[in-house]
Amino acid sequence: MIQIAVKTSATLARGLRVLETVAVLQPVGLAGLTAALGEDKSALQRTLATLHEAGWIAPRGPGTWELTTRALSVAGRAATSSPLVAGARPLLGALRDETGETAHLALLDGADLVVVDIAEARQVVRTALYPGQRIAADASAGGRAVCAALDAAARRALFADPSGLLPDAEYVRIAARGWAVCEGDVKPGWTSIASAVRTAGGAPVGAVVTSGPAQRLTPDRYDGIGALLHDVALELGRG
Q1: Cα–Cα distance measured from residue 203 to residue 177, given in angstroms and rounded to the nearest whole number
Q2: Is the dihedral of CA 93, 223, 230, 206 positive or negative?
Q3: What phi, psi does 232 have (nearest 5°)?
Q4: What is the pLDDT of residue 81?
Q5: CA gap 163, 156 in Å, rounded
Q6: Containing H/E element for 105?
Q7: What are phi and psi of 17, to 5 degrees?
Q8: How far apart are CA 126 and CA 236, in angstroms?
Q9: CA angle, 204 then 17 then 36, to 5°
Q10: Which residue of 89, 151, 174, 216 lies most exposed, with the fewest beta carbons within 10 A?
Q11: In whole angstroms, what is the distance from residue 223 CA to residue 179 CA?
Q12: Dihedral angle sign, alpha carbons of residues 167, 168, 169, 174
């Protein structure tokens, strides 16, 4: 995290925490927010009133709140203005068509990967994701690919509890072949394959992932799909 030598705003920080909590718990009332955040009820009331006046939240029944569409609008503009996301969109569609399975791009945010764009499979039984979904980086294929692009010290520093990490030798193997696989760790019966997306300087920023039911994503397909993902990740890194 970049350190900025100015005083930060506790009021703004509280407002952002309230927005995030409303998004998770909505519809939620003052009592629920107080319990979830452990903050002063009067301060939370002022924050809710401010967010309502600014158009970020709206009443949903007596005494409860939900987000308005403003959050979706801001998130949509952020995604469409990102060169990485814009460049990924046609490539995700091509991956989906080539593999027959859902493809998505997820970006690293702390110890999580956040889904930012998706090309859903056209089959009835398919991986269902949503933009903004957070996936633990230590257990997913995308996270394993990202972790393999870090050295051992940086990998462990990413997590408050690094006990979920694979042995270092496994990350060496992932880095050598260019892709990682996760069989049922995120969701039993489902498999995902991923390759890390890097900056021009080599730092991992996220992963491109293909996922689907294990009966379709069988081990004999791993090498071919992994190679496709690695090529897409390299192209995104060049973009």
Answers
A1: 17
A2: positive
A3: -65, -40
A4: 77
A5: 9
A6: strand 102-109
A7: -65, -40
A8: 25
A9: 115
A10: 151
A11: 9
A12: positive
